[in-house]
Amino acid sequence: MYIHISEYHGLTGHVKKTLWFFQSSKLIWYNGIKYPLMRTQAVLRICEKYGQNHLVRHFLNLGEWQRSKFLKNLEQIDFPLLDSLYSNYVMGKKSFFDCSNLGPPEVISLPKTAKDKKLQEKAKMIGELLLREKKVSCLLVAGGQATRLGINTPKGFYPITPVKRKTFFQLFSEKILAISKKYNTEIPFFIMTNPESKEEVKNFFESQDFFGLKKENVIIFEQDVLPVLTRDGKIIMKNETEILSSPNGHGNSIKKLYDLGILHTLLERGYEYLFYFQVDNPLVKIADPIFLGYHRMYDADVSLKVVRKKSEDEKVGLYVSLSGRPAIIEYSDLDPETANLRDKNGDLIYWAGNTAMHVFSLEFLKSLNDQGFAFPYHVVEKKIYVEKERKEIDVLKFETFVFDCLLRSKKTCALEVIREEEFSPVKNSTGPSSPLTAQKDMSHLFKKWLKASGIHAPLEVQVEISPLFAIDMDECIEKLKGKNLTIERDIYIE
Ligand code: UTP
C-alpha cells in the first residue's frame, strides 16, 4: 500500500491539493518522518482511483486527529474487491446460478414404511455413537445484524422462550449441556459474532458461568466485515471518522474456522463433524443423532434438513437440483411460475425449504479451504440506520452464504423433517416468523410432548420444558412416567 514519495508527481490535481494542505498543516511531520505523507498519498490515490472522491473531500474537512483516525479506517478497505463486487454483482447483475437447468431435489422423506423407520433407528444409533465417541462439534452463527427484528442487542440476547423467557444463547447452551450429559461427551461450541458484539457476547457468557458448559468448550470468535455501498456504489460514512461496514455473511464462518486454526485443532483431537445452526431457530435439535447418523451412513460432505414449503410464495431458500448437482437457491431466484409448478398429485415440485441446519464433515471443510475455495458473493439490499445521517438509508451489502459450499460437495444428504418440531425462525418483530410465532410453536410442541406423556395442558396456557429436563419427546415420556400433573396456568418444567 505504501508508495515512494517520487510518485507524488503521478497524483491527480485533487489529491495534490490535499497533500499540499497536509504539508501546510504539518501532519506530514508526525513522528518526525515523511511517512504519513506517503501513507496519505497512497490511500487518497486509491480512493480516487476507485471513484470514491467524496472520501477525499471528507478527509480534507477533518481536523488533524480525526484525519489520522479516518486514514487508519480507509487503510482497512479492500477497494479492488469492493469495486469488482459492485461491477460484477450490481452493474453486471452477475448471478451465481443458472436456473435454466433446474430439477427437483433428492431428499430422504419422512419415514412412512417399517423399512424407513428401521433405517431411521439405525441412523439414530450411529449418531449416538458418534456423540459418545466425541466426534461432534457445534457452530452457531450469530454475526448477523437482525435488522428485521429491530432490537439494539445481538439476537442471541433476545428472551425467546415462552414462559421463562430464556435468551437464545441460554436455550442453545442448555441444549448442548443436555446432549453432553446424555451421551457423556464433550461438544466444543463455537459461536461466530460480528466484531461489534464479540465482547458483549463474551461478557454475557462469562457473567452466566457459560450456562453450565465448560468454559474452555465455548469458543467465541468474530467474523469479517465489508463496507456497505449506496446504490450508485459509494462507500458510506458511519460517523466523522469511520466507514459504515457490515458483517460479510455466514459463509465467512467456514473460512474463519480454518484461518483461526480451529479446523486443524478439531481434526487433531479426533473430531470429525460440525453441526451448524443459526441463532434464530429456537426449535433447533442441536447435534440431532438421527441427522448425524444419516450424514455418516451417506458418507456425505454436507447434510441439510429441509421442510415442506407452506405455500408457493413462502420466503425461504430452496433445496434443488441444478444441472444435476444439489444446490440451495434463494426464493427470489425463482420466478413465481416455476415456484408454483406442481406434480400430478398437485404438490409443489420445488418444495424443500432450507432450514439452515447442517452437518459438515470437517475433512471436507478443510479441503475446501486447502484448495482456496472462494465463496461467491450475494448482494443483499437492506435499510440500515446511519448515525451520521440520523436516518435509515437503503444500502447494498455483500455476503457469502454457507450453503454455497454444496457446489463443491461430492456427496450431499438432505433429510426432510417436520416443521412444527424443528423449525420456527425468528426474523421479524411482528407477524410471520416473529418471537410470538416462535413462542407459540415452542409451547405447542411441549404440549405435544406432555400429551404423549398422558398429561393434558389447556389451550390457553403456555408450556415450557427445559432442555435439562427433557431434550426430546421420548425423554419427556420417560421422566413423566407415572406422574400426575394438573396444569391450570402457564408452566415451566425443569
Ligand atoms: P439472516 O439472513 O437472518 O440475517 O441471518 P440477519 O443479518 O441476522 O438478519 P436481518 O436480515 O438483518 O434481519 C441468518 C443467520 O446467519 C447469521 C445470523 O446471525 C443468523 O444466525 N449471520 C448472518 C452471520 O452470522 N453473519 C452474517 O454476516 C450474516
Strand order of the largest sheet: 4-3-2-7-11-8-14
CATH fold call of the largest domain: Spore Coat Polysaccharide Biosynthesis Protein SpsA, Chain A
The shape is: globular
The proportion of residues in beta strands is 15-25%
Distance between the termini: 58 Å
Helix/strand-derived class? alpha/beta
CATH architecture of the largest domain: Alpha-Beta Complex
SSE inventory with pairings:
Elements: H1 13-24, H2 35-49, H3 53-60, H4 64-75, H5 79-91, E1 102-103, H6 114-132, E2 136-141, H7 168-182, E3 189-193, H8 198-207, E4 218-222, E5 225-227, E6 245-247, H9 252-259, H10 262-268, E7 273-278, H11 289-297, E8 302-308, E9 318-322, E10 325-329, H12 336-339, E11 352-361, H13 362-370, E12 377-386, E13 391-400, E14 412-416, H14 419-422, H15 435-452, E15 463-465, H16 473-480, E16 491-493
Parallel strand pairs: 2-3, 2-7, 3-4, 8-14, 15-16
Antiparallel strand pairs: 1-9, 5-6, 7-11, 8-11, 9-10, 12-13
Structure description:
Helices cover 35% and strands 18% of the residues. The chain is an alpha/beta fold and 494 residues long. Strands 4-3-2-7-11-8-14 form a 7-stranded mixed sheet. A 3-stranded antiparallel sheet has the order 1-9-10, with no helix packed on it. It has a two-stranded antiparallel sheet with strand order 5-6. A hairpin with a 2-residue loop joins β9 and β10 (325-329). α1 runs antiparallel to α2, α6 (114-132) packs across α11 (289-297) and α15 (435-452) crosses α16 (473-480). The termini are far apart. Bound molecules: uridine 5'-triphosphate. Uridine 5'-triphosphate binds next to loops.
